[in-house]
Amino acid sequence: MTRHIAIAGDLGSGKSTVARILCRKLGYSYFSTGTLQRRLAAERGMNTLEMNYFAETTTSIDEYIDAQLKHIGNTEGGERYVLDSRLAWHFVPGALKIYLTARPEIAAQRVLSDTERQNEPSAASLEERGQTLQERQTVENRRFKKLYGVDCQDHGNYDAVIDTSYLSAEAVAERIILLL
Is the pLDDT assigned to residue 149 strictly greater than 60? Predict the structure, then answer.
């Protein structure tokens, strides 16, 4: 069985929800770089988009977050993880690599209606939320290409790509389990 599962994908595609379902079903531990980034942003009084722009000015944020992934990837035996992370596929090469995608308007609606999601830039409409998600993803992709020479949106980096637009999170998790 694959040791870890790395879930990357579009913002609002259901990465966190699917990852938590997989952890529950498989008994894996959960690690989210998004949760870590949100905490770091909150400590600095920033939202996620501001944090992404700030991270372009210093490597310390990415170095800290990526060190957590590298540690998980280099640890022999023990815990298995579902890694909710845009770069886990790169730093944990032995993991099953999954990319989740969703239609932009569906992703924006998911994020807009998620009352537990913290540190998002304010948005008065679905259109505004879609714009902030796209901007954040663009900044992240630009930063990851510059730092690591990788393209998170290149589907060739993954073992499977799943469009979550019209699937329940449970159905997506079941599809991933079949790949183990």
Answer: yes
Pairing of strands 160-163, 81-84: unpaired
Residue 85: pLDDT above 60? yes
Residue 25: CA count within 13 A, CB half-sphere? 19
| pTM of the shown model | 0.92
**Are the C-beta atoms of residues 95 and 178 closer than 8 Å to each other?**
no
User: Which of left, alpha, beta for 77 (phi over 0: left; psi -120 to 50: alpha)?
Assistant: left
Q: How far apart are the C-alpha atoms of 171 and 42, rounded to whole Å?
A: 33
Q: Give the CATH number, domain containing residue 84.
A: 3.40.50.300
- Could you give the count of Cα atoms lying within 13 Å of 119 in the half-sphere of its Cβ? 20
The DSSP output letter for 103 is -
164 lies in which domain range? 5-179
Predicted confidence (pLDDT) at residue 16 exceeds the cutoff of 60: yes
Average confidence (pLDDT) over 120-143: 90
Strand bridging mode 160-163 / 96-101: parallel
Total count of domains within the chain: 1
Q: What is the pLDDT of residue 2?
A: 59
